[in-house]
UniProtKB/TrEMBL annotation:
Protein's UniProt keywords contain Aminoacyl-tRNA synthetase: no
Family named by the database record: Belongs to the class-III pyridoxal-phosphate-dependent aminotransferase family. ArgD subfamily.
EC number: 2.6.1.11
Cofactor(s) the protein requires to work: pyridoxal 5'-phosphate
Molecular-function GO term, any one: transaminase activity
Primary localization class, coarse: cytoplasm
Keywords: Amino-acid biosynthesis, Aminotransferase, Arginine biosynthesis, Cytoplasm, Pyridoxal phosphate, Transferase
Protein name as annotated: Acetylornithine aminotransferase
Subcellular location as annotated: Cytoplasm
Keyword Transferase annotated: yes
Enzymatic reactions: N(2)-acetyl-L-ornithine + 2-oxoglutarate = N-acetyl-L-glutamate 5-semialdehyde + L-glutamate
The species this protein was found in: Sphingomonas natans
UniProt gene name: argD
Note on how the cofactor is bound: Binds 1 pyridoxal phosphate per subunit.
Length: 398
């Protein structure tokens, strides 16, 4: 194969977007796509939202980057506004989800170190998860396609079965630092932690002095119709990784923590050149001002209910392809029948019907649209799904 300018780590498809407008993307030849993938749960306000464009343009012209050696007025204001909507007391800004996860792992280890228990370093994680691509984040997962050839990975992780509370309990030992999980697994195929599992983990943490780390990079930031997905469980974590929606397309992430859990993250223990720079902070504030309001969250819940309802009506009409709908808010998944492969159906939707979705684990087609879509987008999405199901040839299941 000839060398390409971009490392060929992605199986890139033929959609080559050059412009976006609201929920639509346009390719090099002017083709139009309804974007129900939103950069994989990133573009929460669609493409080219005026408030985001304005924040970026004005801040770029005012001050883009300085350094974290200086005071950061915009960062302080944005952090305080964000924290006020969460369980957390303090945060660290990053440029990506994986960096937020790294900071979460480091914060947990430092907590036990600061308490005089450096042996408590092992993070218990769960199978089918995705936490990003750094060495720390892949060490926290058990998926060979992400890990093979990168060994030796970081020691100090145990990967257990998701939603198995007894297994989690049995894995606690004198070296355990805490649990880390996605409140709702995204890449894994829109699989939510059960209420018994998550509340059970919280109780185990309280009983054994462990930290509960949530990775809400995909399910957080209004995606489920709550600001963060943990709110639906009536528990709070000690540490949480956030990214994707927080910047609405601008690279931004954050690791949030309670004051207690962050007690080891003292002067000099962590850093980032770009993390929390003025441009990122201006965008973050503009996005939060919109998606952090009760009205916006209520609208996401209502839109999600309508989309889910429409999907539930559609599915039985094409039961050679569709099996079930899962998810909440605008984090939805359609599980396909065994004979229909999610990746092929996503390609068929994209190439023949101009509808962008994302394949996930467990043979699921993920629907992760901009959070400000309206009924016309729902109708168009349903129409395209229906047409695609009719024209999709399903291999006979053996
Ligand atoms: C996308 C994702 C990440 C990684 O985020 P990057 O910005 O790609 O580093 C981590 N955790 C979850 C749950 C994600 O969905």
């Amino acid at each position: 194969m000839p060398i390409t300018p971009l490392m060929p780590v992605y199986p890139r498809c033929d959609v080559r977007p050059v412009r976006g407008e609201g929920a639509y993307l346009y390719g090099e030849r002017g083709e139009r796509y309804l974007d129900m993938a939103a950069g994989i749960a990133v573009n929460v306000l669609g493409h080219g939202h005026p408030a985001v464009v304005k924040a970026i343009s004005e801040q770029a012209a005012t001050l883009m980057h300085v350094s974290n050696i200086y005071g950061m007025p915009l960062g302080e204001t944005f952090a305080a506004a964000l924290l006020a909507k969460t369980f957390a007391d303090t945060l660290f800004f990053t440029n990506s989800g994986a960096e937020a996860v790294e900071c979460a792992i480091k914060t947990a280890r430092r907590y036990h170190y600061a308490n005089g228990n450096p042996e408590r370093h092992r993070i218990i994680t769960f199978s089918n998860a995705f936490h990003g691509r750094t060495l720390g984040a892949i060490s926290a997962t058990d998926q060979p396609k992400m890990r093979d050839g990168f060994e030796p990975l970081l020691p100090g992780f145990t990967v257990l079965k998701f939603n198995d509370l007894e297994g989690a309990k049995a894995a606690i030992g004198p070296d355990a630092a805490g649990f880390m999980l996605e409140t709702i697994q995204g890449e894994g195929g829109i699989l939510a932690a059960t209420p018994e599992f998550l509340t059970g983990l919280r109780a185990l943490c309280d009983e054994h002095g462990l930290l509960l780390i949530l990775d809400e990079v995909q399910c957080g930031y209004a995606r489920t119709g709550r600001f963060f997905a943990y709110e639906q469980y009536g528990i709070t974590p000690d540490i949480m990784a956030v990214a994707k929606g927080i910047g609405a397309g601008f690279p931004l992430g954050a690791c949030l923590a309670t004051e207690e859990a962050a007690k080891g993250m003292t002067f000099g223990t962590h850093g980032s050149t770009y993390g929390g720079n003025p441009l990122a902070m201006a965008v973050g504030q503009a996005v939060l001002d919109i998606v952090g309001t009760d009205e916006f969250l209520a609208q996401v819940r209502a839109t999600g209910d309508r989309l889910r309802g429409a999907l539930e009506q559609l599915l039985p009409n094409h039961d050679h392809v569709f099996q079930e709908v899962r998810g909440i808010g605008l984090m939805l998944g359609i599980k396909l029948k065994p004979g229909a492969e999610a990746r092929s159906f996503v390609a068929h939707l994209r190439d023949e019907h101009g509808l962008l979705t994302v394949a996930g684990g467990d043979n699921v087609v993920r629907i992760l649209p901009p959070l400000n879509i309206d009924d016309s987008h729902i109708a168009e999405c349903i129409e395209k799904l229906s047409a695609a199901a009719r024209s999709f040839a399903v291999a006979e299941a053996a």
